[in-house]
Amino acid sequence: MFKRIWKRLGLVAGISLSLLVAGCGSNGGSEGGAADEGKIKLVYVEWDTEVASAHVIKKVLEDQGFDVDITPVDNAVMWESVAKGEADGMVAAWLPATHGDLYEEYKDQLEDLGPNLEGAKIGLVVPKYMDIQSIEELDQYAGKLNKTITGIEPGAGVVKSAENAVKTYESLKGWQVQTSSSGAMATALGEAYKNKEPIVVTGWSPHWKFAAYDLKFLEDPKGSFGKEEHISTIVRKGLKEDMPKAYKILDQFSWTAEDIEQVMLEISEGSDPAKAAEDWVEANQGKVAEWTKGVE
């Protein structure tokens, strides 16, 4: 436990130090703010979705003349650093469930600009060629799947929900959630899909796998995986006054699952995240213009 505490303190201290160095010799920004005029610091949790969104918004802000630093941190530090003004913002808040406890803890210390992506969700995912529609029908594949759900990292929210589903659904009696990693899950899915074999994985959307394969979420009538979520943009208090142009772009930032999955797919195929973001921005100037509308 103490190791986790020191790790968290170290991450916060690292953010503070980088901000101090970035701010030396600057002329603008409010006292105690995270960035001076023209410099902006964003944080994100290192999930596939947030790697994509952080790099895209970084590219858009840079094209508008901002000096942008994006830093991957863990969930708690992401929220804490924005609440304390050590970072300017994030476009990575999964609400109302995934980050709900952190939102409740820090909501009075930051500003919620609302959803930048609607329809995010978690659940059990199968290829469309599997002739079932609901979790309640998974028992039809019990033998072929060895009563196993292919999961990701132990302790992940979607894994916990899958373990809850195993306890809740009679059709999943005797099943197990086999934990591994996000990468291992994606590899297993790809191999099964290539051979048109049955597989059920813990999944979430947006994710590049939906752009690469024909997949579907299984219906969850018992609600083990909760309702649909959204991804919100959160900024520190005072950003609107300190950096009105950056604030306006972040406030107007909004896209779809299909948009983000294009970036995620390119990254999954080996492209550098910055290059994938640049490619998407160049190909979607109309949408980007909506984000920068009114910025002079």
Automatic annotation (TrEMBL):
Residues 39-282 form the ABC-type glycine betaine transport system substrate-binding domain. It holds the Pfam family OpuAC. Gene3D superfamilies: Dipeptide-binding Protein, Domain 3 (3.10.105.10), Glycine betaine-binding periplasmic protein, domain 2 (3.40.190.100). Transmembrane segments: none annotated. Residues 1-23 form the signal peptide. It is found in: Cell membrane. Keywords: Cell membrane, Membrane, Signal, Transport. PANTHER family: GLYCINE BETAINE/PROLINE BETAINE TRANSPORT SYSTEM PERMEASE PROTEIN PROW, GLYCINE BETAINE_PROLINE BETAINE TRANSPORT SYSTEM PERMEASE PROTEIN PROW. This is Glycine betaine ABC transporter substrate-binding protein. It comes from Aeribacillus composti.
